[in-house]
């Protein structure tokens, strides 16, 4: 089984007519994803990539039965696109857009409270259920259906870990990029809980980095819940300078907050196996599963 996605996931693309939206919509369709339409105000009634275009998410949902959206809208208007999808009560939104203004994302998170929507991102590479559905911009080719769930803050490291997990003969149930911006929707702990509840997931890999306290929140949860499934982790940025952003908008250590060594210590104390290097993640989760 997979989390978040299945064979019945029907997707609309917000911002489909731009270069990024067009390119990645083609990639998703070629993967076998059910893309059913696009949303771009002022282009309703037209078609793009032989798919119907709509002026609003509500119109697209009513006409197509869509139950998920992916957002390719530029940062200045990305929050409005997410809020529109939340108001339309779409169950799932993935936002690829990077560096959405933090105050805009605070408004989006407030709108999510009590809503029927789960948001992945912003600054997410998306969600991939191998052989079932690709809702994102991740590279494909090394993924295989399997039993390891992956939750990550880094797109490039996700691709590396997917290849290692496949090489270990395990495959993936689902990979989820929670997003690299400081303020985003689904947190690592929430994703971990979904994997723990999924009967098709036997092991879980967490890919973290400097900045924020999500990994410590995961460690606290693992300590209290004592899950029976194998959990491995990779934390990058051990030698990153403080108070300097490293790639992602959320990858920033301020004072004692977001330190990589503190994250590793918290996870190891909780019983999570932490890979000593990025090239050993596959071996680490395989060892955790075998023991």
Automatic annotation (TrEMBL):
Keywords: Ligase, Nucleotide-binding, Tricarboxylic acid cycle. GO terms for biological process: tricarboxylic acid cycle. Residues 4-100 form the CoA-binding domain. Its EC number is 6.2.1.5. Gene3D superfamilies: NAD(P)-binding Rossmann-like Domain (3.40.50.720), Succinyl-CoA synthetase domains (3.40.50.261). The keyword Nucleotide-binding applies. The active site is at residue 248. SUPFAM superfamilies: NAD(P)-binding Rossmann-fold domains, Succinyl-CoA synthetase domains. The keyword Ligase applies. GO terms for molecular function: nucleotide binding; succinate-CoA ligase (ADP-forming) activity; succinate-CoA ligase (GDP-forming) activity. It comes from the Bacteria. GO terms for cellular component: succinate-CoA ligase complex (ADP-forming). It is an enzyme of class 6 (ligase). Belongs to the succinate/malate CoA ligase alpha subunit family. This is Succinate--CoA ligase subunit alpha. It comes from Hansschlegelia quercus.
